[in-house]
Amino acid sequence: MSTAVPADAAVGSTPVVLTASSIITMDPSAPRAAAIAFDPATGVIAAVGSLETCLAVAPGAEVRDLGHAVLLPGFVEPHSHPVVSGIVTQSPAVWIAPYMGFPTWDDVVAHFRKLDVETPAGRPLLFNGLDRLLQGAPAPTAEMLDGFFPSRPVVVADNSGHLAYVNTATLALQGWDTTVPADPTGGSFGRTSGGRLDGRAYELPAVMAVAGPVMARVVTHPLRSAAAWYRSMASFGITSTSDMTYDQPFLAAYRALGSLADCPLRVSLYHVSTSDHCGDPLDSPFPDRLRKQGIKLWADGSPWIGNAALSFPYLDTDVVRRAEIPLGPAGVSAMNYTPEELDAVVDAHAPEGWQLSFHCNGDAAFDVVLDVYERGLTKHGLLGTDHRWRVEHLGACRKEQFARAAALGVEASMGPFQFIYWGDLLDGTMFPSEIGSQWQAVGDAFGAGLEPSFHNDGSVTPPDVLLNLQSMVTRTTISGAVHGPNQKVSLDQALRAVTVNGARQLFVDDRLGSLAAGKVADLVELSADPYTVDPLRLATEVSVLGTWVGGHRIDLDAFDAQVEAVDPAPHQELARSAQQRCCG
Asked: Coil, strand, or helix at residue 481?
């Protein structure tokens, strides 16, 4: 006879049966259950159904009652940057995004002045999250930042992830206050009328070049910072994610974190296409927790700084002018690479079997990406196969483009965060309402036959899965305003986006994303059933109580202690390679 024990009892070799007020399986053949049985040694699910069914399959099991909790498959965020996000947002870095307590430029300036007084002389500072649109901030130059920080090196990363601002003391670290470096491939430096660097660095290669030395001086224990972001993702119910801008310098950190008993995340790596090693396989010591899945490319930039490849112009408003955004339309001139260059990357790596993924914000960029994909899929005999090539973000994209993607077998990972935080500006201030209200047209994506996933693109925004659900079901922004109600989706569709769809896009849907016999017990415990809550209060009346990975309930305090026991020395240079490699 089975004996009920506390839900957090130590895991042994005895089978475990969890009971809860309800289990939402995301398995359409059996959408609800009362119990789930699994082997705690392997994490493999033996049965999902009634308590009697689970005990019949797992006789002698320990029954752990979760009380009023509701279980779902652990949330899957298929587009993130966990190590870099920790480095650039967690202490000792300073996260100054508008939704982190700095809603205006005046708030940012006050914090600049406060920290310059409180921080020992000469010690560098690293800020992340300046937002020219939401905060009404300028695009700082070195001269402007010198007014706040006349002597210490300072880096201020733009919230978009595509731009950084530095002062003269930072330029001086590499002698660039007196000499003028050439623009790196794929990026550029802002320049004064006299040809000197003006303190602005555009796109990944330039940001990395100018910010790396300061980041290495500020973030002396980057593994601890990365672990803090892991903890944040777990606190929002995420158990599987990706690094969409992986390169070799981050491998040691991912291995170190993945080896810990209470590591809360499984991570799939997408190698940046600019790396000479992007086509190399990865030998992972624990492929169930860390694996390489694909290659990441960038089509265009960000709508928040004006370098997304859009077919339409910005409105000529005070907000847009103050943010120094060119009205455009930029069209394909905002593309980071020519179609021929993108074709070359596809031709080099499609035969290797890698899944390809494109950053793409603008509709003009999406047309180019779909052309490149169609050509590559045709040339390499992949049309009609289960390739699952991906496109990320797709804020400005149109219904007919989604239909074309679906016909090609292309997957869409969409970013509700763009609508949540910028939606009030998008609709009527940045763009005409007929365009801005339709930003993140998730309803059209589903309607065109796609099964999109949702992501938050850390570190651009916090990884708040429940807020994503709320916003896409109700089409409400962070202010509570409704924009584009025709793009609402059902709660069923939204939950698929953060479970089964995300797992499919990461090629882990054979094990994760839904709860069924033979899959793995990655779970999220919620305080209430999302189906019983007012959709407008999903993010406030439902909370995450905890997560399970492989049948093990994650102890985040134990994870922190395990991180502290790791020797930080091999990871101290990690911050030199890190930068805001995100894509909002």
From this structure: coil
CA dist 450 to 78, 365, 412, 441, Å?
A: 16, 19, 7, 12
Query: In the beta sheet, which residues pair with residue 411?
Result: 390
CA distance 494 to 382: 29
Nearest-angstrom CA–CA distance, 187 and 170: 18
pLDDT value at residue 467: 98
Give me the domains of the chain, ranges plus CATH numbers: 4-68 (2.30.40.10), 94-218 (3.10.310.70), 223-513 (3.20.20.140)
- Rg of the chain over Cα atoms, rounded to whole angstroms, equals 24
Number of H helices and E strands in the chain, helices first, is 21, 23
Q: What was the pLDDT predicted at 96?
A: 98
Q: Cα 196–201–202 angle (5° rounding)?
A: 125
For helices 82-89 and 251-258, angle between their N-to-C axes, nearest 10 degrees: 100
Cα-Cα-Cα-Cα dihedral sign, residues 210, 216, 219, 223: positive
pLDDT of residue 576: 67
* Terminal-residue alpha carbon distance, the chain: 54
The two structure tokens encoding residue 441: 């047209």
DSSP calls for 297-325? EE----TTTT-S--SSPPP--HHHHHTT-
| The one-letter amino acid at 208 | M
Report the alpha-carbon angle 74-75-80, nearest 5: 130
* Tens of pLDDT, residues 258-294: 999 999 999 999 999 989 999 999 999 999 999 999 9
pLDDT at 491 over 80: yes
CA dist 130 and 116 (Å) reads: 17
449-481 pLDDT tens trace: 999 999 999 889 999 999 999 999 999 999 999
**Residue closest to 23 by CA, chosen among 539, 538, 499:** 499
Distance CA 416, CA 538 (A): 15
Name the amino acid, one letter, at 437: S
Residues 6-33: tens digit of each pLDDT = 444 444 579 999 999 999 999 999 999 9
